[in-house]
Write a structure and sequence with these properties.
Blueprint lengths: L3 E5 L7 E3 L14 E3 L4 E5 L5 E2 L15 E2 L4
Length: about 70
């Protein structure tokens, strides 16, 4: 299953720390990086994923489950 993410720095802070490189494989709960002072992360999941969070809900990396991806 392919899941993609994109870290987007804010206009003022522009502080992204990314541990992974393009094409790296990730495991559930693995830290891939973080963004200092806010901004956003876009997460691209398969269309049949079940989203487990609400819009604007506060989430904590490696602790908050974002979605369930059904097996094919």
């Amino acid at each position: 299953v392919k899941v993609l993410f994109r870290q987007i720095a804010g206009f003022l802070a522009r502080r992204i720390i990314c541990y992974s490189k393009a094409g790296d494989e990730a495991k559930q709960g693995q830290q891939m990086g973080f963004i200092k002072f806010g901004s956003r992360v876009d997460l691209f999941l398969p269309l049949n994923s079940v989203i487990k969070v609400e819009l604007n809900q506060k989430v904590v990396g490696t602790q908050t489950g974002l979605a369930v991806i059904p097996k094919a």
